[in-house]
Design brief:
Strand order of the largest sheet: 6-7-8-3-9-10
Shape: elongated
Helix content: 10-25%
Radius of gyration: 24 Å
CATH superfamily of the largest domain: P-loop containing nucleotide triphosphate hydrolases
CATH architecture of the largest domain: 3-Layer(aba) Sandwich
Largest sheet: 6 strands, mixed
Number of domains: 2
Distance between the termini: 41 Å
Low-confidence stretches: none
Mean pLDDT: 90
Number of helices: 9
């Protein structure tokens, strides 16, 4: 297994900076996701690791070997693109064998690898079929099998589920994780889909405008974002500007446009009275009740309450999403189970422990 280390990576296209000062270490056997909005540099970074581009500055190491100037074949980094690029005239077995032939693997050893890999992706019974006889998910597994068969130092996946429909993407998430973790290869996976990353990754590196803004486990990025960008991109948090007014019962008191609220005093930047901050509240951590109804936060020592009016509601199946205007600020609330006919005037309740203070 391979440890991938990036040191001070820069990449420029002309005068345009695609990546700036990327420092990252991906552990052996880790399933690591590069996540971010379109144009943030995640696919460019993947191509640098693959050897398809050379960095403008910095170095790339596989274990302790500097591979910065090595081509893709010599560093044995195998990349799966969005299009599966399967040979339509070949059987599944022949497609999987193709990379082994290029690498001149002996016939007996190649045959063993092919059978082992087809079994890993659960396609051994379909090995004699052609790609057009398979579903999209099965074709994706063939592309993975072809990459795994050559036993890469590093497996690189560039939005591999983007061509699948929503239901199949959901099913393939678990399959991708099972296959990659069973194979044991270090895997780097690019996506712009937050739920895909949160549900599959061991760790995530979140990029924005060519910079790595936070690295951590899915839980760390979701529950303890370091910046308002991370809080907004991972889960679409409600962000409200405020000023620290003091402390009360172990919580921070924050004055905001929608009213004073209690927030967590830990997990964020050092807080002093007068500091300008941004508070983050997850939509699913807000409870929506009729305006004027009694406090429902039984057993919660510190509960915040604000009153507003619903200006839009959307039914999403297992949940409903509501846009609530409070003192001119629009807050997104997710109700589980869904609320079909909410009152127009509502009170939102949310615990102080669910309000995270971020630096401005």
């Amino acid at each position: 297994m391979t440890r991938v280390r990036l040191e001070h990576i820069d990449k420029y296209f002309g005068s345009t900076a695609a990546l700036e000062n990327i420092n990252l270490q991906i552990e052996p056997g880790e399933l690591f996701f590069l996540l971010g909005p379109s144009g943030c540099g995640k696919s460019t970074l993947l191509r640098l690791i693959a050897g398809l581009h050379e960095p403008s500055g910095g170095a790339i190491f596989f274990n302790d070997k500097d591979v910065t100037r090595l081509n893709t074949c010599k560093r044995n980094a195998v990349m799966c693109f969005q299009s599966y690029a399967l040979w339509p005239h070949m059987t599944i077995r022949q497609n999987v064998a193709f990379g082994l032939e290029v690498h001149k693997v002996p016939a007996l050893q190649a045959a063993e690898r092919i059978e082992k890999t087809l079994k890993l992706v659960q396609l051994e019974m379909l090995a004699a079929r052609k790609p057009n006889e398979l579903s999209g998910g099965q074709q994706q597994r063939v592309a993975l099998a072809r990459a795994l068969a050559v036993q890469p130092q590093c497996l690189l996946l560039d939005e591999p589920l983007s061509n699948l429909d929503a239901k199949l993407r959901l099913e393939m998430r678990g399959e991708i994780r099972r296959i990659c973790k069973s194979a044991g290869f270090t895997t780097i996976y690019v996506t712009h889909d937050q739920k895909e990353a949160l549900s599959v990754a061991d760790r995530i590196g979140l990029l924005n405008a060519g910079r790595l803004v936070q690295v951590g486990t899915p839980s760390e990025l979701y529950h303890t974002p370091r910046t308002s960008f991370v809080a907004d991109f991972i889960g679409g948090a409600n962000l409200v500007v405020g000023v620290i007014a003091g402390q009360k019962d172990g919580h921070s008191v924050v004055k905001t446009l929608i009213g004073d609220m209690l927030a967590r005093a830990d997990g964020g930047p050092t807080q002093s009275p007068g500091d300008k901050v941004i508070v983050s509240i997850r939509p699913e951590q807000m409870r929506m009740i009729a305006a004027g109804a009694p406090n429902t936060g039984t057993g919660i020592a510190a509960i915040n309450r604000v009153t507003g009016r619903i200006i839009a509601s959307t039914f999403l199946g297992e949940t409903s999403e509501h846009l609530v205007e409070v003192q001119g600020k629009q807050l997104r609330v997710v109700a589980v189970p869904p609320v079909f006919q909410p009152p127009q005037a509502v009170t939102l309740e949310f615990a102080a422990r669910d309000v995270l203070v971020l630096g401005e």
